[in-house]
Structure to design on (318 residues):
């Protein structure tokens, strides 16, 4: 789904199983109907509670991979589960805030607790330190503030950020959330979605205005997103904060969806969008490749050795 590709960030499946079992106050009933020869049977090789947890995990993984919200029927078919069983597990996950229903109330999306869990896993993982080092190297190279962002529902979540050493800067901390329609990363994420998905996330015009340059007309925004889709570079020009510009490039992802990005911010009085694109974009793309390699987000990069991270982004001096 449109949270962080949760299944890509969690290396230890049993960690999630333990987590789900702790937050679940009561086990899900798995008693097969006596009269039905097709009734579901719990594999003998797995304890009942673990089997339920693994099924719940497979459902979370299925929803995480989906292009949008998904229905009960789609989840049941995709996970090869009887519809009543799928409904009971979904109800358990929704009660624990791991999933939630979309505004129409009939389809499922990632819940706030699952997004927070994914964020905390990344923040405390070994890969986080490696990604932070890449970000520090990037800031040393280009001289402006850089951050790693993640698509989380209808917002952009700052996963990590390294500030420039220059005195004039915009200070935001990891964990900060900003809107999609008026940020470089947000528009990059939106550029890979269909108009229907975009409207579902943003709502109807007029969109919230933050500055005189905020795009509030959805049709105008859709036109800009077409350009961003072609270039692969999200752009921002003082649309949420005055006197600030930014560009963002994708981290991993497929041609269809992007879940993470690396972005650079700077004051408009010091840098312009053409300067960002011309001077900073190559370094941003190298850093994005290195971060994708660290998180193993692309099949093309995952086969390379760990040494490639140091080759892609200059190492900081000792």
């Amino acid at each position: 789904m449109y949270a962080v590709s949760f299944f890509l960030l969690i290396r230890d499946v049993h960690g999630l199983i333990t987590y789900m079992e702790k937050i679940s106050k009561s086990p899900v009933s798995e008693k097969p109907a006596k009269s039905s020869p097709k009734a579901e049977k719990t594999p003998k090789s797995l304890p009942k509670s673990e089997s339920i947890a693994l099924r719940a995990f497979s459902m979370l993984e299925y929803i995480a991979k989906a292009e949008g919200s998904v229905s009960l029927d789609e989840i049941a078919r995709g996970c090869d589960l009887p519809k009543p069983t799928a409904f009971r597990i979904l109800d358990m996950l929704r009660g624990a805030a791991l999933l939630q229903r979309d505004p129409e109330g009939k389809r499922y999306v990632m819940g706030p607790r699952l997004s927070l869990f994914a964020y905390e896993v990344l923040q405390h993982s070994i890969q986080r330190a490696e990604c932070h080092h890449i970000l520090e190297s990037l800031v040393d190279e280009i001289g402006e503030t850089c951050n790693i962002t993640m698509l989380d529902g209808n917002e952009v979540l700052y996963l990590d950020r390294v500030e420039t050493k220059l005195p004039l800067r915009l200070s935001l901390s990891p964990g900060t959330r900003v809107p999609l329609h008026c940020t470089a990363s947000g528009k990059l994420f939106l550029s890979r979605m269909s108009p229907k998905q975009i409207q579902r996330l943003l709502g109807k015009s007029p969109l919230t205005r933050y500055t005189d340059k905020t795009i509030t007309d959805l049709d105008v925004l859709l036109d800009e997103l077409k350009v961003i889709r072609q270039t692969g570079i999200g752009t921002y020009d003082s649309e949420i904060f005055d006197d600030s510009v930014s560009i963002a490039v994708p981290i991993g992802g497929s041609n269809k969806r992007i879940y993470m990005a690396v972005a650079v911010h700077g004051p408009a009085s010091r840098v312009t969008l053409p300067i960002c694109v011309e001077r900073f974009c190559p370094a941003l793309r190298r850093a994005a490749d290195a971060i994708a390699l660290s998180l193993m987000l692309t099949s093309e990069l995952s086969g390379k050795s760990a040494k490639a991270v140091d080759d892609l982004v200059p190492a900081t001096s000792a």
Residues 142 and 280 are 6 Å apart (CA to CA). Residues 1-19, 23-50, 298-318 have pLDDT under 50 and may be disordered.
